[in-house]
Amino acid sequence: MRIMRISEKIGYIGKNRRQKQKMITLGEAYSLWTLMEFRYDALITTKTLYEFTKDADLKVIIERGINVLEAQEITLEKLMKEFLIPMPDKPPKYANISVDVGTITDKFIFRDIYNGLSNTMFKHISNYQRAHGSYLREVFRRFLVQEMDLYDEFYEYGKLKGYLHEQPAFRI
């Protein structure tokens, strides 16, 4: 797979953007666009929730997640420019919060981000399956692995803090 990815990337050399655009499918372009939109939404939501977070350990985990989201944002923006895919509207860089809402607890913040991670893994799998090119498939695979690593961190944190929903036990 690595050889195919490298040869595919070499095939892009010397091609102008219009020619590169013809090297991906409509499904791949759709995957890139929707994932870019999804990353933008996730970034502004996560940054906003970070501002309300009180627990220092949760802040560290959220910061790691923000770093992953920002790195993925850069990768996706480069790919979108490379293939001439129109960009969705970019959200503000910072979450400006001026009100302290007491109902936004660390547990609420954890649950929201945790559910987002769960849903995003399925999106990465779907994009991976939709991608015909080795290069884009590798990008989506890398994003999935990063998401799984963050999910594991959140899961263990949630278990430690008691933030996960108690699942019924069926022991005899």
What layout of secondary structure does this protein have?
Layout: H1 2-12, H2 17-21, H3 26-52, H4 56-82, H5 106-130, H6 134-161
Helix pairs in contact: 1-6, 3-4, 3-5, 4-6, 5-6
List keywords for this structure.
172 residues, Ferritin
Protein architecture, described:
The protein has a single domain (16-161), classed as Ferritin (Up-down Bundle). The protein has helices at residues 2-12, 17-21, 26-52, 56-82, 106-130, 134-161. Helix 1 packs across helix 6. With 172 residues, the protein is mainly α. The longest helix has 28 residues, at 134-161. The radius of gyration is 19 Å and the shape is globular.
Q: Main β-sheet: number of strands, strand sense, barrel status?
A: none
Can you say what the CATH homologous superfamily is?
A: Ferritin, core subunit, four-helix bundle
What is the rounded Rg?
19 Å
What is the terminal separation in angstroms? 47 Å
Classify the beta-strand content into a percent band.
Answer: under 5%
Q: What name is given to the CATH topology?
A: Ferritin
Count of alpha/pi helices = 6
